[in-house]
Structure formats: structure tokens, C-alpha cells
Design a protein that fits this description.
It is built from two helices and seven strands; from the N terminus they run βββαβββαβ. It is mainly β.
């Protein structure tokens, strides 16, 4: 997939595999994550360095998959946008944005390390 996003970096060279603080990962790193069945996703990004130089590798914006732990049926909350109540397939991956959570109940059966 061709990069549709450009990120400028104030460096002369950039060869890192991953910079978590900036959510940037090389395609090599992303491929390794895929082979290890990691829960993540990436968006190809074109990195531009000082003097319009190109980075030494191909990169993506790197995001770890997130999981909701909210038990929807037992939690009392108000969403910022009622359109977010549409079925997930119609939201195009848009996460819920909560205006207020008055009573939070954690979903049962969670076995991942959350923190």
C-alpha cells in the first residue's frame, strides 16, 4: 500500500525500526509483528527528513490494537455523538467517545494483560 500520509522529521538520517513515542515503525518491524500474531495495525507513512531527504526504510504509523473492557449492557454512560450507537460495521472503525460514564462495569472473561 502506498503511503498517503507524510511526516516531517527534523533529522538528517533515520534508520530506527520502531519509535513507540511517535507511533512510527519500519515495515520490517510490522512484518515481524504480523508473523508473531501481534495485535496491531499500521498506516503507511512517508518520512521526510531535513533537506527533503527520504528515510532509509519504509515506515508505517504503528498502533497497538485496543480492546474495550466496558460491559455495555451493565454500564451507565452517555456518548458524545449518538451516531456512534450504529452497528460497528457502519461506524467504519470509529471508537466510541464517552461524554460521561456514571457506572463502569468491566466485561467478564478478559484474559489479556491490560497494563
Amino acid at each position: 500500500m502506498e503511503a498517503s500520509v507524510t511526516q516531517k522529521i527534523d533529522l538528517e538520517e533515520f534508520y530506527e525500526d520502531v519509535v513507540f513515542e511517535q507511533c512510527i515503525a519500519s515495515t520490517d518491524f510490522m512484518d515481524e509483528c504480523g508473523q508473531s500474531n501481534c495485535k496491531d495495525f499500521g498506516l503507511p507513512v512517508r518520512l521526510e527528513l531535513r533537506s527533503d531527504r527520504k528515510a532509509g526504510k519504509a515506515y508505517s504509523l504503528f498502533f497497538e490494537s485496543r480492546r474495550s473492557i466496558l460491559e455495555i449492557d451493565k454500564t451507565k454512560f452517555v456518548l458524545m455523538d449518538e451516531g456512534l450507537l450504529k452497528p460497528e460495521s457502519e461506524r467504519r472503525g470509529m471508537p466510541a467517545v464517552y461524554a460521561r460514564i456514571e457506572h463502569f462495569v468491566i466485561e467478564s472473561g478478559i484474559d489479556e494483560d491490560l497494563f
